[in-house]
Amino acid sequence: MELSLARVDYLQVGVTTQKTMRLLPASGKKATQKVVVGDQDGVITCFGIKKGEAVTVFKTLPGQKISRLELGGALNTPQEKIFVATGSEVRGFTKRGKQFLSFETNLTESIKAMHISGADLFLCASYIYNHYCDCKDQHYYLSGDKINDVLCLPVDKVNCITPVLACQDRVLRVLQGSDLLYEVELPGPPTVLALNNGNGGDSGEEIVYGTSDGKLGLIQITGSKPIPKWEIGNEKKRGGILCIDSFDIVGDGVKELLVGRDDGMLEIYNFESADDPSLRYDHALSESIASIQGGCVGKDGYDEILASTYSGWLTGLTTEPVHREGGSVEELKLSQEMQSKISSLRNELEHLQMKVLQEREKYQQSSQSSTAVSSVPAFSVNDKFTLNKDDASYSLILEVQTAIDNVLVQSDVPIDLLDVDKNSAVVSFSSCDSEPNSNFLLATYRCQANTTRLELKVRSIEGQYGTLQAYVTPRIQPKTCQVHQYQIKPLSLHQRTHSIDHDRPMNTLTLKGQFSFAEIHSWVVFCLPEVPEKTPAGESITFYFQNTFLGTQLESTYRKGEGCFKSDNISTISILKDVLSKEATKRKINLNISYDINEESVRHTLQLIHPKLEYQQLLAKKVHLIDALRELQVHEGNVDFLLPKYRSILEEADQLLEEYKRQPAHLERLYGMITDLFIDKFKFKGTNVKTKVPLLLEILDGCDQDGLIAFFEAA
Known about the structure:
The chain is 24% helix and 38% strand.
């Protein structure tokens, strides 16, 4: 059966964050449910739908921004008490809006994640987890990396309290009391957790997770070890997952999986064919989906999926048909309903236009008076700067609560701007003087009307570090702009990984000196992405990384007074040596630096680079031939006389040009990496070989792997 859903926009509240919208339990079977949502203005809005109109049940006064909203109540009873987390406080409201709880926690930071199960309250700040029972402190845990979400397995099914933390370092941490029971390694940083089927499945131990790089998976959390059930990659290169719910929208008795992503994609997965879910339906909204719920909202008897978006829109995808089939009485009733709705919308629009004119006049008068004070309008920007493993590029996503006019991007380090298919903005580049002010990039993105979300892609060069700045100007009066800064780190293309191949030939850099654990940790944070800013607990720590561009690896182990860094790429060791010694010099710390260079690692790195180099050189040659071959085709009218390899170039011309356009300067980057490798190899021997670089470039043009390795060994 084909799933047919119609979109309905109900209401707009303030800017909302992840997991801040829920549906209250229905009073009867197939009856409509009330919606409760909390926004960043601190307002909780509860409303129902009557005759297609949103009718408010209650609305609280503004306050501190609401970071989470959950439903609770005694176990095995309808969960209809509303709990919100604001700052470090948890408040409880009845379904009528009466406040019955105000619990000030002992957390020094704001609450980032919350879960409620009966009398048990699970709260997380950035790194700290706390468990309360009847508002009394029970357990505490300090996580090694930022906590994004928290969940507890259903107590009535598993007969014990088993909290699960979703942490930024690609790990689920399963706790028992205040202790870590075990860790579950995931393919990406988990952003959201949900109980499978809403109840943990038959065993109560099944958890669905979504990651920031768009992967989805199911894991069974047993008392002793995790059992992975299934995992879905992100082949379509869609956004990160922000919310998950289970609901039977098809009506076949099996709950579907509802998924909301940060690029506005709403997806429905079903389980009809096998144990692994398959994508059944998707719908694109124009902004990120903060919360998703399945239920009955608009009309009795018609199920729907309700989503709340970043700017506060509550949008439903309903099973209620837009055009009803039936007699003329039904049609007349429908047309009368529609006419009254259109007329009320017209009245509302006229009222809003009048209000805007009045406010504009008031503003003009106040701005011209002698006591005028300039006021900058405040607006919210939701930004995300993440490294993509697939193409070794950074995604910068900017989302504004109102339409974006333009975004100016400036960088003090050389970076490439890459093409993004979803991006409809017009980009223009300004010439910049890189010498006096270190200004390497100045680009302006002019957005089309009603664009609230902009995605950019950049690729950095390892070893060159600095700041990328985005100046965001929305379409509001008076004109105002927000500046957001993003650090491009020295080893910016490295990504955290769970393990590395210890059999590779490794180069070692060892540092010794009078530095504390916190100081060397701050240097590692400065050099590498995805390292938690908080100094790890314990006396020493080991992190593993992989270079997303080349596939080389890095192991960093350090403690107070000593640091050891191992990599199969000499250039990585060279960059670390330069940056770490510079940072130590800034703090007037004397470092004793020693290194052990493995000659075999150079050959190994060249063998990793060479297939990429060969592919890019072949692609460049094919692209350069396209124009000449197309001219031949026009003149001759027939290309049968051409060799098959040239005919295939003509057939694939559009794909080849698209790929070449998507990866500008890719070949130059590879040439640069091989040149750096050559210079770094001899730098550790105390030899300057910069005069031999032109000869190296000639060999690279020949694309001969054996000749290249021989040149490196003979130089």
